[in-house]
């Protein structure tokens, strides 16, 4: 830029080596703009580049593709017959934003209703709602833990948890992903040793895990972890960003699915962006905890209150899930997402793909491993009208690139079958069927049916 | 008799010093005591002669020199103990020599004769290397047994997760029952609202409502994904996210901008992108928590200067540049807010720019409360102070104030903005802004451009209110005359923040209950490092009428006089 002599460069050369050499060349696989609601089928805007992908220009052409990438687990992303009219009503009543923090003039009746609703849904005495899920983690952890505390977090936790833990000033230790025995080892070691250098006993210990890990699709081994934490008197913090509303018989998350009593988990956190089609995050816990947070948490004291139509959307979608709107659409959606996920996962595995994740989880990453296969897979799928999400460094390690599929209750069986065909074809082209396919079983099945 | 090479080497190499009777031989590099004649000879030949002895196969011939040498040194005399020891050693040495020179100890490798001593030399070399590679000696730590760890775990008692609840923690803010415009309904009564930062009165405006409704019907509420994974919504012909960003840049006159989904996360995601460990940041002590958290996460060196004091800033910059001579690779920033949330003061941008250019720092400006407010056309502090917007490196703002929507943006040069698209954690790892809020922002900016009288009205309201509040008993004004946040602090502080807060909260409560004027006190979190005095804040809006403003000033005069008299 002009006149910058004597100034150090604002962006260090080393940081953007990856960006210049690898990322820019496959830039068209990320950040694709869409021009309709992120429903099961949406319009992807076509882009072109004249300078080898350094800049991308949008055209006015769109192509209708199958959406396998948005977090739309229960299908509330597009206009819904029950939720949208109510959201518009609340817009008229309370306007798009309250322009104020919750402690000042930002608490409306909607907000108090919302917090009650969320607490009831999750199964805890009280809840507090914030405007953004990322800020929830970053602002809560410094309040609960300070210097002299210990945070033990799973090695694959989300960036917001890592940021919050760093901001808190507590010591951080990591345990192997989803391995309760290693967690026990770490806990025993740390309690015996005490704080680093002074060896004084720790003030408090908190173990942070996620319900569904977004890059692995795995459920966390919650019953074992909770029992270990009870034994060693550590506090449990559960981040249910992806699992709330998507798993469990009535959609209440990992605790319901794995049979863990919610009273055993001290702090439950979640976001509304995924299953509820809105924005924001919440923390649920005991009444005292919520009161304390409302008094001290910076996100509550300094951040704008959640937008009223967003709040109304959450309330309506919770009502639909619980069946309180008078129909059984909620139960249907939950059953459908479970069936869809299990069907899709088993089919992919039969075809020979390497798919991570547990049964019942709607997130399924397909391993690509080689970073060069990312653009191949992504572009070829898009050409055949299936929009997938590919994940590269830095969200995952450099050589563990993957394509992540998010199943939704809005997908019908035909959509899934088409997607399977396309992915199978592209998988053959790109060469990611790392396991042998199982054609024999299918023939046998057909055989048995015929005989009957 | 053949000398024993083993013993010859030991003292010379390991350098043992034994002085228990016997001869002390002065060797060129070290002093060793050798108990036998042959050893004495070998040691004496050490260092300089050592190598010659090693290299020559018939090195034994060199030992011929020993006699004259030892004879010279032997003037000191023998003791009987020494001679007895010597005899013992002689016999052992003979035995060892014979063992070593046995045929098994000799070998022929590649036509070279290897005598027994080479074998020993090799062994010694191995021993030396092994000892050198060992770490320094540490007393072995006995690890705790399983039972001990169990006991420790049983004994340990953690602190409760939260401290016990006190009375002030049970404060409940008033609950609104209608939209947060200039007039709002609380508990069934209509009150004048000075607690929302709706500076231009756009909350509930028809045009904004219309565009939001259209967006809600088309897109639903949320965007269901981060910007990198199909969360960028682009309504053709009217774009949403990407157009919101270009609309903001066009309005401000900057090359590019980036949209964040929450106002608070804008600052604390933008700062760690550009400042890492080792960089220097000079920041005003009255900045809000979002900036403080960003500074903490960036792990750079932070230096505070006195609130809005240019002299203090000048001195601080002077000190820093004097200290850090090797400042070529260091990035240096000044972080200021245009209108401080904690005190209502306006930063003198032209002076800051002069200082920045003199000392070669970069400026980070947070324009949350001045965007749409200051300047002839609402372009913010740069327009107000007459500074060209290119001189500020990074401008951030939260949109939850004048623009009557949610979210935040960051604007600057293309390089700055592009870097954030990949390394700003609040942008990459978080869902994007809901589309209806982005449309509300676009509509709001359109309205600001089309109706500049909104800004004039706001300025008029501010001056009216300040005139009315010019002689309130017990409260002094700390905010600048043009700031939309009117900040009043206690003239005589009670001595502690807690005491001040009690008095101020009582004033605010009574104002709401008795006079139906809704105003708020400034709240501080326990994590907030700001030490500025707390006070009462009134957010002036262009939607307030003259009657509202007079009502507010009358009310405040009356209530504060009442409360403070009561306290005295």
UniProtKB/TrEMBL annotation, chain A:
CDD domains for the chain: KBL_like
Gene3D superfamilies registered for this protein in UniProt: Aspartate Aminotransferase, domain 1 (3.90.1150.10), Type I PLP-dependent aspartate aminotransferase-like (Major domain) (3.40.640.10)
Swiss-Prot/TrEMBL cofactor(s): pyridoxal 5'-phosphate
UniProt EC number: 2.3.1.50
Major localisation: endoplasmic reticulum
Gene Ontology terms: biological process: ceramide biosynthetic process; sphingosine biosynthetic process
Recorded GO CC terms: endoplasmic reticulum membrane; serine palmitoyltransferase complex
UniProt protein name: serine C-palmitoyltransferase
Lineage: Eukaryota, Viridiplantae, Streptophyta, Embryophyta, Tracheophyta
UniProtKB/TrEMBL annotation, chain B:
Pathway(s) it belongs to: Lipid metabolism; sphingolipid metabolism; Sphingolipid metabolism
Enzyme class: transferase
UniProt EC number: 2.3.1.50
Pfam families: Aminotran_1_2
Signal peptide: none
Gene Ontology cellular component annotations, sorted alphabetically: endoplasmic reticulum membrane
Cofactor: pyridoxal 5'-phosphate
Enzymatic reactions: L-serine + hexadecanoyl-CoA + H(+) = 3-oxosphinganine + CO2 + CoA
Location(s), subcellular: Endoplasmic reticulum membrane
Aminotransferase class I/classII large domain: residues covered: 190-553
Any one GO molecular-function label of the UniProt entry: pyridoxal phosphate binding
Transferase among keywords: yes
Membrane spanning stretches: none
Sorted UniProt keywords: Acyltransferase, Lipid metabolism, Pyridoxal phosphate, Sphingolipid metabolism, Transferase
Primary residence: endoplasmic reticulum
InterPro entries: Aminotransferase_I/II_large, AON_synthase_class-II, PyrdxlP-dep_Trfase, PyrdxlP-dep_Trfase_major, PyrdxlP-dep_Trfase_small
Topology relative to the membrane: Single-pass membrane protein
Family annotation (Gene3D superfamilies): Aspartate Aminotransferase, domain 1, Type I PLP-dependent aspartate aminotransferase-like (Major domain)
GO biological process: ceramide biosynthetic process; sphingosine biosynthetic process
Superkingdom to which the source organism belongs: Eukaryota
Family: Belongs to the class-II pyridoxal-phosphate-dependent aminotransferase family.
Descriptive protein name: serine C-palmitoyltransferase
Protein's organism: Linum tenue
UniProt lineage: Eukaryota, Viridiplantae, Streptophyta, Embryophyta, Tracheophyta
């Amino acid at each position: 830029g002009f006149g910058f002599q004597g100034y150090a460069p604002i962006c260090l050369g080393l940081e953007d080596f990856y960006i210049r050499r690898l990322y820019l060349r496959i830039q068209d696989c990320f950040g694709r703009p869409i021009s309709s609601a992120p429903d099961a089928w949406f319009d992807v805007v076509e882009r072109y580049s004249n300078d080898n992908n350094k800049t991308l220009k949008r055209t006015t052409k769109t192509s209708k593709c199958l959406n396998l990438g948005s977090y739309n687990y229960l299908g509330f992303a597009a206009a819904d017959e029950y939720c949208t009219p109510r959201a518009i009503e609340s817009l008229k009543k309370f306007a798009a934003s309250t322009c104020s923090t919750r402690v000042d003039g930002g608490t409306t009746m909607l907000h108090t209703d919302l917090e009650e609703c969320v607490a009831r849904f999750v199964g805890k005495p009280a809840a507090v709602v914030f405007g953004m899920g990322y800020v929830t983690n970053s602002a809560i952890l410094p309040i609960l833990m300070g210097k002299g505390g210990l945070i033990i977090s799973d090695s694959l936790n989300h960036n917001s948890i890592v940021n919050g833990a760093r901001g808190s000033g507590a010591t951080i230790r990591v345990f192997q992903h989803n391995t309760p025995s290693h967690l026990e080892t770490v806990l025993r070691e740390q309690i015996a040793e005490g704080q680093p250098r002074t060896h004084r006993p720790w003030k408090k210990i908190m173990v942070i895990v996620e319900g569904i890990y977004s890059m692995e699709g795995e459920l966390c081994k919650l019953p074992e972890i909770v029992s270990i934490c009870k034994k060693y008197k550590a506090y449990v913090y559960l981040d249910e960003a992806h699992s709330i509303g998507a798993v469990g018989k009535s959609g209440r998350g990992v605790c319901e699915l794995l049979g863990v009593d919610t009273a055993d988990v001290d702090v439950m956190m979640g976001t509304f962006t995924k299953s509820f089609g809105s924005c924001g995050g919440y923390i649920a816990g005991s009444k005292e905890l919520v009161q304390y947070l409302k008094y001290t948490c910076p996100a509550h004291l300094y951040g704008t209150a959640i937008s009223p139509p967003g709040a109304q959307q959450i309330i309506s979608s919770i009502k639909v899930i619980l069946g309180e709107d008078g129909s059984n659409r909620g139960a249907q959606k939950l059953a459908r997402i479970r069936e869809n996920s299990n069907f899709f996962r088993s089919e992919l595995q039969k075809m020979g793909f390497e798919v991570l994740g547990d049964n019942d989880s709607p997130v399924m990453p397909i391993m690509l491993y080689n970073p060069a296969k990312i653009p191949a897979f992504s572009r070829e799928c898009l050409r055949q009208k299936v929009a997938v999400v590919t994940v590269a460094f830095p969200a995952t390690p450099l050589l563990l690139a993957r394509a992540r599929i998010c199943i939704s209750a809005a997908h019908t069986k035909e959509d899934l079958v088409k997607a399977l065909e396309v992915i199978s074809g592209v998988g053959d082209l790109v060469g990611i069927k790392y396991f042998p396919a199982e054609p024999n079983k299918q023939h046998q099945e057909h055989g048995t049916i015929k005989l009957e | 008799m053949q000398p024993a090479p083993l013993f010859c080497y030991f003292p010379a190499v390991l350098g043992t010093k034994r002085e228990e009777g016997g001869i002390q031989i002065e060797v060129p590099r070290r002093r060793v005591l050798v108990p036998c004649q042959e050893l004495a000879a070998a040691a004496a030949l050490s260092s300089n002669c050592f190598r010659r002895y090693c290299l020559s196969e018939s090195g034994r011939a060199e030992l011929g020199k020993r006699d004259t040498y030892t004879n010279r040194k032997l003037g000191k005399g023998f003791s009987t103990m020494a001679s007895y020891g010597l005899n013992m050693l002689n016999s052992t040495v003979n035995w060892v020599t014979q063992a070593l020179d046995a045929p098994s100890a000799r070998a022929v490798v590649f036509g070279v004769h290897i005598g027994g001593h080479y074998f020993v030399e090799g062994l010694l070399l191995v021993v030396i290397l092994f000892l050198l590679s060992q770490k320094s000696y540490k007393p072995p730590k006995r690890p705790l047994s399983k039972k001990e760890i169990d006991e420790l775990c049983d004994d340990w008692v953690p602190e409760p997760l939260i401290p016990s609840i006190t009375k002030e923690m049970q404060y409940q803010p008033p609950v609104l029952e209608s939209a947060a415009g200039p007039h709002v309904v609380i508990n069934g009564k209509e009150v004048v609202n000075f607690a929302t930062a709706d500076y231009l009165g756009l909350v509930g405006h028809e045009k904004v409502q219309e565009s939001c409704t259209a967006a809600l019907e088309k897109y639903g509420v949320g965007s269901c994904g981060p910007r990198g994974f199909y969360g960028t919504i682009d309504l053709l012909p009217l774009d949403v996210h990407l157009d919101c960003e270009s609309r903001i840049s066009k309005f401000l006159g900057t090359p590019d901008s980036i949209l964040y989904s929450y106002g608070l996360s804008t600052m604390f995601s933008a700062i760690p992108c550009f400042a890492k460990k080792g960089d220097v940041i000079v920041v005003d002590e009255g900045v809000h928590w979002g900036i403080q958290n960003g500074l903490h996460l960036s792990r750079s060196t932070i230096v505070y200067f006195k609130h809005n004091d240019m002299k203090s800033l000048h001195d601080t910059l002077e000190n820093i540049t004097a200290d850090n001579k090797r400042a070529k690779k260091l990035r240096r920033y000044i972080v200021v807010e245009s209108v401080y949330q904690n005190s209502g003061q306006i930063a003198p941008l032209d002076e800051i720019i002069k200082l920045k250019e003199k000392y070669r720092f970069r400026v980070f400006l947070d324009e949350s409360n001045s965007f749409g407010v200051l300047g002839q056309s609402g372009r913010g502090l740069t327009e107000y102070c007459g500074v060209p917007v290119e001189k500020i490196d990074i401008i951030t703002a939260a949109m939850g104030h004048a623009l009557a929507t949610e979210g935040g943006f960051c604007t600057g040069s293309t390089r700055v903005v592009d870097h954030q698209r990949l390394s700003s954690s609040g942008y990459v790892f978080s869902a994007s802004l809901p589309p209806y809020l982005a449309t509300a922002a676009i509509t709001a900016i359109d309205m600001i451009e089309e109706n500049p009288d909104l800004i004039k009205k706001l300025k008029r309201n501010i001056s009216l209110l300040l005139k009315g509040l010019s002689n309130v008993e017990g409260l002094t004004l700390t905010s600048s005359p043009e700031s939309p946040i009117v900040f009043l602090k206690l003239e005589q502080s009670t001595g502690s923040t807690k005491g001040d807060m009690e008095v101020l909260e009582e004033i605010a409560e009574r104002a709401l209950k008795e006079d139906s004027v809704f105003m708020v006190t400034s709240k501080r979190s326990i994590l907030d490092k700001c030490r500025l005095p707390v006070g009462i804040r009134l957010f002036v809006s262009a939607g307030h009428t003259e009657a509202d403003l007079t009502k507010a000033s009358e009310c405040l005069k009356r209530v504060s006089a009442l409360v403070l008299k009561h306290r005295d």
